[in-house]
Design brief:
Layout (H helix, E strand, L loop, with lengths): L1 H11 L3 H26 L9 H10 L2 H35 L4 H4 L13 H23 L10 H11 L8 H9 L1 H28 L8 H25 L22
Helix pairs in contact: 1-4, 2-4, 2-9, 4-6, 6-9, 9-10
Bound molecules: protoporphyrin IX containing FE.
Length: 263
């Protein structure tokens, strides 16, 4: 009961300024997770037959990391849930305060490329990222989708290994999952939309928390763009790259000059 009351106060309590501060803090904390997640994923690129990535995944799934990872998962769930709920409540409040919707569509900073999008655009992009995240967790965390898109000779083997939720996902499994047409498309769009969300979100979070300095504010704007591109494009590269990398089980490349035959 106390927990519920606490959650209620966290979302509805306080002024809308306080609520925006909580959106900013939860958003920045999630940015920290994104940086560490991207850094870990970069190991997928290492051409050492997956040794570095597989060791990293094994370490995350080891007994000593179990409690840390479980805590991080709960923390992320709370951060994401609170961030989204606060954004919903604030957008609804803004809409109610300006029923014509005119001011909602206006930017705070005029018509520059970095002009703040309306709050409802931030909400929409946040919901798209949420949808991407649901598919991502179904695939990578809960391993609930098989690899039916793979050639028949690898399907059974891959699905058996993948279904074992106690085993870390290997580099080969991760690449196979990323090759799924639905995954590729949704991840590409989801990650680019995440980048767009961050261009404004990152900058705005610091502003909300009171960062405003004639000399450093323009630098913060630039930093937000760089950060958003690194995160958005950085993650979006994986589902594209997965189609071009060779992994065990791939059909051997045809020798030069060979013509394709149909069985
Ligand atoms: C598109 C590139 C991405 C790849 C290749 C990727 C890969 C992975 C992998 C391999 C796992 C670990 C599954 C396991 O072993 O248990 C994972 C988990 C996760 N990913 Fe991603 N990810 C990507 C993008 C993202 C993005 C953009 C977000 C956030 C918006 C995200 C959020 C998460 C979360 C919350 C988890 C669960 C963490 C946990 O269970 O500890 N991922 N991802």
């Amino acid at each position: 009961m106390n927990g519920l009351k606490w959650l209620w106060t966290l979302i509805y309590g306080d002024s809308s300024i306080g609520r925006k501060a909580r959106i900013a803090i939860t958003g920045l904390l999630m940015c920290g997770f994104l940086v560490s997640h991207l850094a870990g994923n970069l190991l997928l690129f290492k051409g050492d037959d997956g040794e570095s990535y597989n060791n990293y995944a094994k370490f995350l799934h080891s007994g000593e990391m179990e409690a840390v990872v479980a805590g991080a998962e709960v923390g992320l769930l709370v951060l994401f849930g609170v961030h989204l709920l606060l954004a919903l409540v604030t957008t609804r409040e803004n809409t109610a305060a300006r029923p014509t919707g005119y001011a909602m569509k206006q930017s705070k900073q005029g018509d520059s490329m970095l002009a703040a999008p309306a709050y409802n655009v931030m909400l929409l992009t946040g919901v798209v990222v949420f949808a991407f995240l649901v598919l991502h967790l179904v695939d990578f965390r809960f391993r609930a989708r098989g690899s039916s898109h793979e050639p028949a000779h690898v399907v059974e083997k891959v699905d058996a290994a993948h279904a074992n939720k106690h085993q870390p996902i290997t580099r080969t499994d991760a690449i196979r999952l990323l090759r799924d047409p639905l995954t590729s498309g949704v991840y590409l769009v989801g990650c680019l939309v995440l980048g767009y969300h961050l261009v404004h979100g990152f900058y705005s979070a610091f502003q909300t928390l009171g960062f405003n300095h004639p000399r450093y504010t323009p630098k913060l704007r630039l930093l937000s763009i760089v950060f958003a591109i690194v995160i958005g494009v950085g993650f979006a590269i994986f589902p594209v790259w997965a189609h071009f990398v060779t992994i065990p089980g791939d059909a051997p490349a045809a020798p030069p000059g060979a013509t394709a035959t149909t069985p």
